[in-house]
Amino acid sequence: MKQINSNSLLELLQNDVRELLLQCSQLQNTDVAWLTTQPAAGKWSVAHVLEHLNIYARYYINAIEQKLHLNQSGANLVFTPGWLGNYFTQLMKPASDNSLKSKMKSPANAVPSAQPDALAMLQEFINHQHHLLNLLQIARTANLDYIRVATTLSKLITLKLGDTFRFFIAHEQRHFLQIKSTLQVVGPVVADLQER
User: Fold this and answer.
1) pTM passes above 0.85
2) Distance (Å, rounded) from C-alpha 164 to C-alpha 150?
3) How far is CA 186 from CA 67, 121, 180, in A?
4) Which domains does the chain have, with CATH numbers?
């Protein structure tokens, strides 16, 4: 795998998180009906997507923080992605044209509730992103290759810390494309209902 400068990678990931926070500020100014309306029967609303992301954030942010708290490894100048971590990241990450390579079914333990509280889910997601920014900053003193984080798939499947950050943020970017397309569908429907 191609090596990446560790600080450059962390800066890039921080910029990705800041971009997600900018999109969240737009969601905060969106009518709550847009956030809770499903684009079609059986499809997730924006609130559903946010709860799904929060389910992952509750696990990964806690797991990353615990590993960083125990960090005795010292920083490394370059990070080499692992084959599994790189595979997961590439599977999740949107293409440069903002398209998705494939559709994926969410695991049963990451399916949102029937009617999540949209504003609570949005605020929780924002809080997680601020926490994530702090963890990315702390990670500048850690070895992104040496520290390993267990995945939600199994405690036996672990990823390098650098890959965990890459995969986790790519997953969020993927679902923010879903949020964007959901809003494009539900916006006219909600506006039509509100005019009646």
Assistant:
1) yes
2) 9
3) 41, 18, 10
4) 4-190 (1.20.120)
